Amino acid sequence: MAELTDVFFVDGMRTPFGRAGEKGMYWNTRADDLVVKAIIGLMERNGDVPKDRIDDVAIAATSQTGDQGLTLGRTAAILAGLPLTVPGLAIERMCAGAMTSVTTMGASIGVGMYDLALAGGVEHMGRHPIGGNVDPNPRFVAEKLVDPGALNMGVTAERIHDRFPHLTKERADRFGVASQHKVQAAYEAGKIQPDLVSVAVKDAEGAWGLATEDEGRRPETTLEGLATLKTPFRPHGRVTAGTSSPLTDGATISLLAGADAVKEFGLAPKMRMVSFAFAGVEPEIMGIGPIPSTEKALKKAGLTIDDIGLFELNEAFAIQVISLLDHFGIDDDDPRVNPWGGAIALGHPLAASGVRLMIQLAAHFAERPDVRYGLTAMCVGLGQGGSVIWENPFFDGKKKRK
Ligand SMILES: CC(C)(COP(=O)(O)OP(=O)(O)OC[C@H]1O[C@@H](n2cnc3c(N)ncnc32)[C@H](O)[C@@H]1OP(=O)(O)O)[C@@H](O)C(=O)NCCC(=O)NCCS
């Protein structure tokens, strides 16, 4: 009889994130090749893990057509050179795709059915624009189930401003500037690069290059500059390109293991999964989704928000992160939150981003033995939130750093 077991995040890697569109570095690169490259990089870095012992490969994508179609987990596993005996599946929960890959594989490990699994996601938003190729049921609008604006994520962000007027544009702008500056500082300190898998890319003329860094960063961002930007989602609105995650191409992957596999293969896990939860909210203000999902995950873990020493929150929009911080009484510039910046600067390739948060939290944990618990959380289109709480294996039980 299989027994319940601890679930560990052993390691994670990702491709550099590219700006979506014709001018972006991945315009001539297939989406599936991005995730294949990430898998190869991760397996190389974890060479002691026997490939034939991987029990499953879960890869998320929001748009599951074309080069993101065809049961990505299976196709990517074959293309990455995993043995044909290793199965795979595709996962879809919009922005929380990779997070759901991790929780689904994590749960399978937790109940003792799997020993090792790969979990990640990919989104080539240049080749697969948000909402492209979908056919929403007309009942959503005809029966007023969901406002048509709920399908435009930027509009839902504007509505958070409407709902909570004390969460001002100026606060969002400050958050956007800080994200850019924190990412740049992290790059300069060499914090981000170790978990990136370089990708060979071809430009429009067919010349080869190598993608080694996230492309969308704007370190020169200033508060004054952001104040002048257009508000693309509403005339005289408050959300701008400076406070939104940009359209992005990229892929992420993680290796998960149960306690027995950690022992058997002598692995050194970077995080232990404590709890996870997803929750639904009104689709019209989808960005507040991580508030109830975090509350659920905390409850499951028997923890409170004060137990969380580090937060990796996906910055789909500055305002939706601020709404979560405000709810929990955390300052917009609290140093525990996104210490190396976030998606506003790095990009948000929808179904890939959840594992990017985990990769970053894992890197923090290694440097912060004073922190026991960390949270990865994100909002999800059509009104959902996802949260995973992690424990730091390097926690040394000493007093919290101020
Ligand atoms: C906000 C959004 C519409 C902007 O798209 P875009 O107009 O193609 O973005 P750009 O990068 O061209 O930026 C627009 C302008 O702002 C400027 N800009 C962007 N970020 C800036 C910054 N940090 N500092 C200064 N200027 C900035 C650009 O230079 C550009 O200026 P220009 O018009 O003079 O060329 C797009 O990024 C978007 O839809 N984001 C949300 C994606 C989403 O919904 N994801 C899912 C979340 S749940």
Structure description:
The chain is an alpha+beta fold. The protein has a domain at 7-126 and 249-390: Thiolase/Chalcone synthase (Peroxisomal Thiolase, Chain A, domain 1, 3-Layer(aba) Sandwich). Helices cover 31% and strands 20% of the residues. It has twelve helices and twelve strands. The protein has helices at residues 31-45, 72-79, 97-110, 139-142, 153-163, 169-188, 223-227, 259-264, 290-301, 318-327, 343-346, 353-367, and strands at 7-14, 18-19, 56-60, 88-91, 116-124, 199-202, 208-211, 248-258, 271-280, 308-313, 373-380, 384-391. The strands form two sheets. Strands 1, 2, 3, 4, 5, 8, 9, 10, 11 and 12 form a ten-stranded mixed beta sheet that branches. It is globular. The protein starts with 6 loop residues before the first strand and ends in an 11-residue tail after the last strand. The model has no long low-confidence stretch (mean pLDDT 97). Coenzyme A (COA) binds at residues 95, 130, 153-154, 180, 218, 221, 225-226, 229, 232, 241-242, 244-247, 316, 348, 381. The site of coenzyme A has 20 residues, from helix 5 and helix 7.
Summarize the structure.
The chain is α+β, with helices and mostly antiparallel strands and 402 residues long. Helix content is 31%, strand content 20%. It is globular, with a radius of gyration of 20 Å.
Indicate the topology.
Layout: E1 7-14, E2 18-19, H1 31-45, E3 56-60, H2 72-79, E4 88-91, H3 97-110, E5 116-124, H4 139-142, H5 153-163, H6 169-188, E6 199-202, E7 208-211, H7 223-227, E8 248-258, H8 259-264, E9 271-280, H9 290-301, E10 308-313, H10 318-327, H11 343-346, H12 353-367, E11 373-380, E12 384-391
Parallel strand pairs: 3-4, 3-5, 10-11
Antiparallel strand pairs: 1-8, 1-9, 2-8, 5-8, 6-7, 9-12, 11-12
Bound molecules: coenzyme A.
